[in-house]
Amino acid sequence: QVQLVESGGGLVQAGGSLRLSCAASRSILSFSVMGWYRQAPGKQRELVATMTRAGGTNYADSVKGRFTISRDNAKNTAFLQMKSLKPEDTAVYYCNTANYAGTITGSWGQGTQVTVSS
User: Fold this and answer.
1) How far apart are alpha carbons 49 and 51 in whole angstroms?
2) In the sheet where 67-72 sits, what is the strand order?
3) Tens digit of each residue's pLDDT (9 = 90 or more) over 39-52
4) Which residues of 11-47 are buried (b: 16+ CB within 10 A; e: fewer)?
5) Rounded distance, CA 82 to CA 29, Å?
6) Is the pLDDT of residue 1 over 90?
7) Which residues contact 35 (CB under 8 A, 6 or more apart)?
8) How many other C-beta atoms lie within 10 A of the C-beta of residue 81?
9) Does residue 73 sit in helix, strand or coil?
10) 12-67 pLDDT, tens per residue?
């Protein structure tokens, strides 16, 4: 079972930026899809962004134009660059693997907390 460790969260003012990292215990190219998800207090976990093995990307409407998913294959690490952050982006952010149908194939880690103050 692959291990995924998220990092990079923190407290930032609205309009600020953060870059999250997701370090995998094996080659991220072995996964069909890698994704970022988030869960705000009292809400269900939701998809934020995904990247396929071929490099195709997909974003939730709420983050399009502000967030960018990327990866460093040599470092087995995926990233989520977040810009123009809003208070509603406050959540615990997780990375995970999925198949092309969108079904999660990995285990959820601890996540990294992102808090955006107004």
Assistant:
1) 7
2) 4-7, 18-24, 77-82, 67-72
3) 999 999 999 999 99
4) ebeeeeebebbbbbeeebeebbbbbbbbeeeeeebeb
5) 23
6) no
7) 47, 48, 49, 50, 51, 69, 95, 96, 97, 98
8) 15
9) helix
10) 999 999 999 999 999 999 999 999 999 999 999 999 999 999 999 999 999 999 99
d(CA 11, CA 58): 26
Q: What is the pLDDT of residues 87-113, one digit of tens each?
A: 999 999 999 999 999 999 999 999 999
Q: What is the DSSP letter of 106?
A: S
Residue with tokens 């969260």: 9
Q: How far apart are CA 103 and CA 14, in angstroms?
A: 32
Residue type for position 57:
T
